[in-house]
Amino acid sequence: MESGRRKGFNGVLSSLSLLCVILDIQLDGVLGATHVEIEQHLEMGRKLLAAGQLAEALSHYHYAVEGDSKNYLTYYKRAAVFLAMGKSKSALPDLTRAIQLKPDFLAARLQRGNILLKQGNTQDAREDFETVLHRSPDQEEARDQLMRANKLEELREEAHAAHHRGDYSTTITVLDRVVELSPWDPESRELRADCYIRLGDPRKAIHDLTPTTQLRNDNRAAFLKLSILHYSLGEHQESLGHVRECLKLDQDDKDCLSHYKQVKKLSKQLDSAEEHIEEARYQEAIVKYESVMRREPNVPYYTNKANERICFCLVKNKMTAKAIDLCSEAHQRDPRNINILRDRAEAFILNQDYEKAVEDYQEAREFDMENNEIREGLERAQKLLKLSRKRDYYKILGVNRSANKQEIIKAYRKLAQQWHPDNFREEAKKKEAEKRFIDIASAKEVLTDPEKRQKFDSGEDPLDPESQQGGGGGQGGQGRPFHFNPFESGGNYHFKFNH
């Protein structure tokens, strides 16, 4: 029995020995094939890198690194591709690994030192430059970069001192030089952004903070600050975008979540108000914008924007007096806003105050000479002013420009009865009545005809021969200012008015 056990044990050993031999043979074959493949990937990576096809080159270097994790040159070459792609943070681990595999690899140390310097890590950068100079004292680039690292530390100390004493302009000036030396240092950009905010220049603060969201891992603070800055400028969509990025990093971040709810609610109100305007539901839009002002009374952009749009809606609803008052208040808050000037001008036109309408359009034109809407509005207001000095059919009938056809006919009948020439005996008064009666009839003719009324509202008198010659319209160039004169045939004129 013991003999049988020995035979069985010896058989197992023989089988294991044979398996090891087979595995060794197979492994040699695999390693040999992998070495060839590695060389092929390296060659393809080199060619693609030279051709500028960086993403494709990178994929080949990935394969090469996976195939041979002990080759320092492979890591160095992949780092070069990362740098060419602008991915310095990805290049850094590869350079460090190359140095670990070959500590005297000076090119990798110099390249890593350059990256660390640009990131503002002067301590580690200095160590790399000093190591290079220790092994190669004549290395000029390392010497120059070491001097830059020392200068960078001096400048940063100077900037922090200026910031501490509240001299933000000087801080910015110094930090401009710091950022030139270390453009990938988030701390310097964040400090400069703080100075811009304190000096009331949020745009430049945004410009500095934006890259820090990529330069620093999990930079929720920067995303939140960017969201708040955009919000203060009235850019609620951009604000939403940044605060959402913060919540992607941590959905439970209390500050970002609180701000998100605030921006989301305001954004919804603004979008809803504009939808109402697009659907010509102006009163509902006014209610929404009034709600916006109550929600954000301390953010000037939103109160100004709300007043601007309410002004627009009041004009569209032909609430003339209220529109003029609110537009004037909005203009005082935001005097260079051409939309407010345009809308107040339209309110003045509705109020038949054409001189003021011209003044508002002229002022808006000074702010934006290229705006076609303002130019056309000014031309129309000037025509209406000129026309009003001749004959204003609305004033003749004593109706507003927003009067409907029924109101116009009612006013016409009342005035026609009042100024009918049969009501007057004295010749002078009868002559005056004839003239007034003709004007009343002309006003009724123009204002009850949609096409003629539209021409008149655009600054053209459809019954004026001179206007028709210029506009090529209505009367076909006839010299008659209206269709008929009820008094041309002499004294027998009698009219009956139905009430």
Structure at a glance:
The protein has 499 residues and is an all-alpha fold. 76% of the residues lie in helices and 0% in strands.
Provide the descriptors you would attach to this structure in a database record.
elongated; TPR repeat; single chain; mainly alpha; 76% helix; 0% strand; 499 residues
Describe this entry's structure for a reader:
Helix content is 76%, strand content 0%. The protein is mainly α. Helix 15 runs antiparallel to helix 16 and helix 21 (405-418) packs antiparallel against helix 22 (427-447). It is elongated, with a radius of gyration of 41 Å.
Provide the fold topology:
Blueprint: H1 2-50, H2 54-67, H3 72-84, H4 88-101, H5 106-118, H6 122-135, H7 140-164, H8 168-181, H9 186-198, H10 202-215, H11 220-232, H12 236-249, H13 254-278, H14 282-295, H15 300-316, H16 320-333, H17 338-350, H18 354-367, H19 372-388, H20 393-397, H21 405-418, H22 427-447, H23 450-457, H24 465-471
